[in-house]
Write a structure and sequence with these properties.
alpha/beta; Spore Coat Polysaccharide Biosynthesis Protein SpsA, Chain A; two-stranded antiparallel sheet; 12 strands; globular; binds cytidine-5'-monophosphate
């Protein structure tokens, strides 16, 4: 069977200040290894990604490359220096994706424990013809719109979804979306699907996972350790 070449870009150049002072977030340790190692291993072990492109914190390209190649068996890897915003880091990764790659995933290093089935669902939906795909979960909290310290409205949550990564794209769609976003002067999109939406493109949703949460605050690190311990091959 002909398999469409697939690359995954991992923006990992953020400071992660909400985690507290210290190393860039992607290099903080979870169970003795950097979050980035867990994230890349999660993507690679899904078995449907042919190349990982990491956008690393400035000054750490060689160290990140050595760490990942040691930690993840048989990994095919390119490491580039990230930019000043997430969007710029993804664009730097995209410019390093080889010409034969037709499907591109973008996955936040901070979503270190994404289960393989989510990666496979996203890739399968792009292979089936979607230009852009996002994994989502229903919103469980009641959501209110506020103005300063007053509630303005309660939003109907039945049509709301929280969005995770990896997000998957036909390569041409992601490239057009980034160049349109750049030309329009926007540089701080918090995800890539929003750039596709901004140019009028369709974005398809597939089911995400509670285990694909983003490690943002100190409590998330404790939760991530608990998730790792609960997995069958835990040490
Ligand atoms: O800050 P936030 O958690 O939204 O960042 C999402 C992802 O984007 C993280 O994996 C982070 O490392 C990455 N990022 C980046 N370059 C930046 C800012 C964030 O690669 N300049």
């Amino acid at each position: 069977m002909y398999v469409v070449p697939t690359a995954a870009i991992v923006p990992a150049a953020g400071r992660g200040e909400r985690l507290g002072p210290g190393a860039p977030k992607a290099l903080r340790e979870l169970a003795g290894e950097p979050l980035l190692v867990h994230a890349v291993r999660s993507l690679w072990s899904a078995g449907c990604v042919d190349l990982v492109v990491v956008a690393a914190p400035p000054g750490s390209v060689a160290a990140v490359e050595a760490t990942l190649l040691t930690a993840v068996e048989d990994l095919r890897l390119v490491v580039v220096e990230g930019g000043g915003t997430r969007q710029a880091s993804v664009a730097a990764g995209l410019s390093a994706v080889p010409g034969d790659v037709e499907i591109v995933l973008v996955h936040d290093a901070a979503r270190a424990l994404v289960p393989a089935e989510v990666v496979v669902r996203v890739v399968d939906a792009v292979r089936a013809g979607a230009g852009a795909v996002v994994p989502v979960l229903p919103v469980t909290d009641t959501i209110k719109q506020v103005d300063a310290d007053r509630v303005v409205a309660t939003v109907d949550r039945s049509s709301l979804r929280s969005v995770q990564t990896p997000q998957g794209f036909a390569r041409a769609v992601l490239e057009s979306a980034h160049s349109a976003g750049h030309s329009a002067g926007g540089h701080d999109a918090t995800d890539d699907a929003s750039l596709v939406e901004a140019m009028g493109g369709e974005v398809v949703v597939v089911e995400g996972s509670t285990e694909a949460f983003k490690v943002t605050r100190p409590l998330d690190l404790a939760l991530a350790e608990a998730v790792l311990r609960s997995r069958p091959n835990a040490p």
